[in-house]
Amino acid sequence: MKNKMVFIISGVGALAGIVAAVLSGITEPPLPPAYNPAASPYSSAIYAEGIIESAQTSGENINIYPEVAGTVKEILVSEGQQVKTGQPLLRIDDSIQRATAEQQSSQAEAATALLRELKAQPRKENLDVADAQVVAAEASLKTAQDTLQKEQAAYEIDPRSVSKDALDSAVNAAAVAKANLIVAKRQDDLTKAGAWIYDIQNQERQQHALAKAYAASRALLGKYTLRASRDGVVLSINTVVGSYASPQGSYDAYTQGPDPVIVLGSPSSSLHVRCYIDEILVPRLHLGSKMIAQMSVRGSDVKIPLEFVRVQPYVTPKIELSDQRQERVDVRVLPVIFKIANSSNANLYPGELVDVYISE
Predict the structure, then answer these.
(1) 3-state DSSP assignment of residue 356
(2) Is the pTM for the entire model greater than 0.70?
(3) What average pLDDT score do residues 327-350 get?
(4) What is the largest CA-CA distance in the chain?
(5) At 323, is the pLDDT very low, low, confident or very high (cuts 50, 70, 90)?
(6) HSE-CB for 25 with a 13 A CA cutoff
(7) Domain locations in the chain?
(8) Confidence (pLDDT) at 329
(9) What does the pLDDT read at residue 43?
(10) 82 and 89 in contact (C-beta within 8 Å)?
(11) Using one digit for the tens of pLDDT, what is the confidence trace for 6-22?
(12) d(Cα 352, Cα 330) in Å, to the nearest integer?
């Protein structure tokens, strides 16, 4: 009985081993890819990595940097918003500069008031005072001369009636009164002449300099408000209220470098693709309107034809491959710009990386 059980157990074990071996030898079929990798639609083509950007007649998107540094006080637009030329986008705290401009404005106004005062001379009240001083000097001279005549007449009748000292004092008093009259008349002439031309010219220069200083301060005050340099759409805002912005931009903790405070794109609905052609492939390009290219959107099976727009005729390092601030980039590329012919079947945004094949 025991031998029979041993044989049965052995048979079951052998059968289980065979089944396990068969099952372990079966391989699962691979899962289909989420999307087909980009492939060239042409028999012979040049591959290039491209980046979508808003349509521009020249250059790339408009990167806006402030010309002054300070704390962001107010952001007046939102991403995706259409803006017009001159529209305020962002304000930086301008309290110190505003106070400086107001101070210089007051200084310029004071200089202008002083210049008007100089040009308005002589003042009627000053003329009246000068004329009164001449009259008083004439009266004093008449009194002194009358006194002298009396003293002299008495002396001629009887020299003992007037002392020599009194006679000399009367002569001196008449001379002083005469000199005072001359001074009063000269002062009257000076008052009637008004301000000296050189004083007016000097004040004009000071007023002009202070007015220019105020205009410069006022112009600098306007720099604390960032405005749209052209019609466009706000693609990106890289700062928040309360953060610090400078002419170098706004610090980005992710990239560990400065970014433009605001990126402004074209208001046109059309988009461009900037392709970077490796310099060793440049001789194989046939630039012109007959150039045929197709774009593949990563992560999908969308294929979009492209139309040649222009070449940026300057070969530059391909900094997209690496952080140029930390590594040396030896790959150099030629930027070629294409227009997306029809993007109705795909959601495309500036800054998106795509694969481009250019027919040879």
Answers:
(1) strand
(2) no
(3) 76
(4) 193
(5) very low
(6) 6
(7) 35-61+266-360, 64-92+224-265, 122-194
(8) 55
(9) 86
(10) no
(11) 666 776 677 777 777 77
(12) 24
CATH architecture of the region 64-92+224-265 = Beta Barrel (2.40)
Cα angle vertex 272, ends 268, 275, to 5°?
A: 165
Average pLDDT over residues 222-248: 91
Q: Minimal CA–CA distance to 265: which of 227, 229, 233, 226?
A: 233
Map tokens 């720099």 to a residue: 223
Q: Kindly indicate whether the domain formed by 122-194 is annotated with CATH number 3.40.50.
A: no
Task: Tell how far CA 98 is from the center of its chain.
Answer: 16
The mean pLDDT of the chain is 85
CATH topology identical between 35-61+266-360 and 122-194: no
Residue 89 and residue 240 in contact, taking contact as beta carbons nearer than 8 Å: no
Going by pLDDT thresholds of 50, 70 and 90, the confidence category of residue 77 is: very high
Contact (CB, 8 A) for 107 and 214: yes
- Which structure tokens are listed for 349? 């945004």
**Token couple for 275:** 């392709």
Q: For tokens 């997306």, what's the residue? A: 340
Q: What number does CATH give the domain 35-61+266-360?
A: 2.40.30.170
Extended strands (E) in the chain: 45-54, 62-64, 70-75, 82-83, 88-92, 225-227, 232-237, 244-245, 250-252, 257-259, 262-265, 271-278, 292-297, 303-311, 316-317, 332-340, 353-359
Amino acid found at 231: D
Q: Could you report how far apart the first and last alpha carbons of the chain are, in Å? A: 84
